[in-house]
Amino acid sequence: MNDGVDISKDPAARVEEFLRLIMIPDPDAARRFVAPNVDIHFTGARAMSDIAECSAFNATRYAWVKKRIERSEVVVGSDARSAVVYNLGTLYGAWPDGTPFEGNRYVDRYELRDGLIVKMDVWNDSAEWLLLRAGLV
């Protein structure tokens, strides 16, 4: 997945490898990319303190889900020990009833410090799509 990029020095590659692992889902392997006190917020201000909670939440919302990464954008901090990575793309998968979906936009924001993810914010269109499926909008 990282095409020979040294993920120890490339914040975007670190985030993309983290995402690859978390989408398996393999939270134990993905955990090596996050700080012990990682601060996670999903759409709707859902706070989480461990990445296993991300997989557990996704299991309630989707039969299965994956990310189709379009791009990552990096803002390096002034001290070169920190960076912010924006990862953008679309989700595809199946709703709990098995109905497939694709093209569900997402944007994630990751703050890294010394190569570890210390903060993770996740936004996507799933809530809107679920309201449409329920006939509420």
Automatic annotation (TrEMBL):
<protein>
    <submittedName>
        <fullName>Nuclear transport factor 2 family protein</fullName>
    </submittedName>
</protein>
<feature type="domain" description="SnoaL-like">
    <location>
        <begin position="15"/>
        <end position="119"/>
    </location>
</feature>
<dbReference type="InterPro" id="IPR037401">
    <property type="entry name" value="SnoaL-like"/>
</dbReference>
<dbReference type="InterPro" id="IPR032710">
    <property type="entry name" value="NTF2-like_dom_sf"/>
</dbReference>
<dbReference type="Pfam" id="PF12680">
    <property type="entry name" value="SnoaL_2"/>
</dbReference>
